[in-house]
């Protein structure tokens, strides 16, 4: 029988703070592919999988949280929502606000968000303001607006966002049949590492619902490995960074909102949060597109960069199951694919409208 994925709220309703009366705002998010990464598996001797979150409706994992946040906004009777963003949250908020019939305002750091994300927010009719400051400054303003003005905050400081995003962990376990040994992901504002850890913990123990107790689904929880960009690595420094800097604009964040919960995820799981350089991020970005067939945006490659780096240091165990969340689609920020390793631009070869010349250019000989 035909079955269409119904979005994360309906698929996981009994594990989310919704009731039968809740009006669900959804664009069909979640149900993203868990792709076996052949070359990373060969490299490490472990089974490595990619949770490809670029396949969500607006092209990033943010949609999992936004369906919950926008549903909560409607439930609260909000007329308008606001968020600060490095780009993906604003794209997602703008789309889901449209689906909910709400006004949406987004605050982004001037000049530091990719064209793809900017165009999404505009296309969906959000009011977009470019703030003369970084993401952390934008979030400060968004929080103050949420407190003192009639707008509903949909950043991940809103617990509804974390609730929605925890479904990423549920899907991984549902696909593999158990939790992986290691879960790797990029860390920026630290909502996602918080959400995955919450999801893995909830799936590994009996879970109380309004209609009774659900049994544990997994037998264990993974070790959480988070990776930050070296120029924006407050967890590695142990304190906020006032001038974060990286080409991976998605994770250009110096003062993560979910600080304590990310540290808890790291420590309770026996994991780590480390840094990778921009060059390592771009090398991983190329690895994913050229060796695995998966196109992501640079920030999304930070987890893969981390795994490759840990492997080079002899610190990745073999014979394990490893899942890496690749968080956003490559088309969000495609310019990086058009750059060669030495930094020059890729120039497509031009040919005349003629099959013999095209065949010669391709190195083909006639049968
Ligand atoms: N990867 C991508 C593609 C992101 O857009 C973000 C965060 C992260 C990773 C980090 O996730 O913040 O939960 O630790 N982007 C936010 C935004 C900040 O505004 O779109 P996190």
Topology:
Blueprint: H1 8-11, E1 34-36, H2 38-44, E2 47-52, H3 62-75, E3 80-84, H4 88-100, E4 103-109, H5 115-123, E5 127-131, H6 135-148, E6 152-153, H7 159-165, H8 167-176, E7 182-186, H9 191-203, E8 207-209, E9 212-214, E10 223-229, H10 234-237, H11 259-268, E11 272-276, H12 278-292, H13 302-312, E12 321-326, H14 355-361
Parallel strand pairs: 2-12, 3-4, 3-6, 4-5, 7-10, 7-12, 10-11
Antiparallel strand pairs: 1-2, 8-9
Q: Tell me which ligands are bound.
A: ligand F0G
H-E order: HEHEHEHEHEHEHHEHEEEHHEHHEH
Poorly predicted parts: none
Structural class: alpha/beta
Q: Calculate the terminal CA-CA distance, rounded to whole Å.
A: 46 Å
Key traits:
alpha/beta, four-stranded parallel beta sheet, 367 residues, single chain, six-stranded mixed beta sheet, binds ligand F0G
């Amino acid at each position: 029988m035909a079955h269409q994925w119904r979005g994360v709220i309906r698929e996981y309703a009994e594990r989310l703070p919704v009731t039968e009366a809740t009006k669900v705002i959804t664009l069909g998010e979640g149900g993203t592919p868990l792709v076996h990464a052949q070359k990373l598996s060969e490299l490490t001797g472990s089974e490595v999988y990619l949770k490809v979150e670029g396949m969500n409706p607006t092209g990033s994992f943010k949609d999992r949280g936004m369906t919950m946040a926008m549903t909560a906004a409607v439930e609260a009777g909000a007329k308008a929502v606001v968020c600060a963003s490095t780009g993906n949250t604003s794209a997602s908020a703008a789309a889901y606000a449209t689906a909910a019939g709400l006004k949406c305002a987004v605050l982004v750091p001037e000049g530091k968000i990719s064209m793809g994300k900017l165009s999404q927010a505009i296309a969906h009719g959000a009011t977009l303001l470019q703030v003369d400051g970084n993401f952390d400054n934008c979030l400060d303003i968004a929080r103050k607006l949420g407190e003192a003005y009639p707008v509903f905050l949909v950043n991940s400081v809103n617990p509804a966002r974390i609730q929605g995003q925890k479904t990423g962990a549920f899907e991984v376990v549902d696909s593999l049949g158990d939790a992986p040994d290691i879960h790797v992901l990029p860390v920026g504002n630290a909502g996602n590492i918080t959400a995955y850890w919450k999801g893995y913990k909830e799936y590994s123990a009996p879970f109380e619902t309004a209609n009774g107790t659900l049994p544990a689904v997994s037998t264990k929880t993974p070790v959480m490995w988070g990776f930050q960009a070296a120029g924006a690595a407050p967890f590695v420094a142990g304190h906020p960074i006032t001038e974060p800097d990286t080409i991976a604009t998605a994770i250009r964040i110096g003062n993560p909102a979910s600080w304590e919960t990310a540290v808890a995820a790291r420590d309770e799981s026996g994991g780590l949060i480390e840094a990778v350089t921009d060059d390592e991020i771009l090398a991983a970005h190329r690895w994913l597109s050229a060796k695995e067939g998966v196109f992501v945006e640079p920030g999304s490659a930070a987890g893969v960069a981390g795994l490759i780096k840990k492997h080079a240091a002899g610190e990745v165990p073999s014979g394990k199951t490893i899942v890496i969340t690749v968080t956003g689609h490559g088309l969000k920020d495609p310019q990086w694919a058009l750059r060669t390793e030495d930094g020059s631009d890729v120039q497509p070869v031009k040919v005349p409208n003629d099959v013999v010349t095209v065949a010669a250019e391709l190195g083909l000989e006639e049968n």
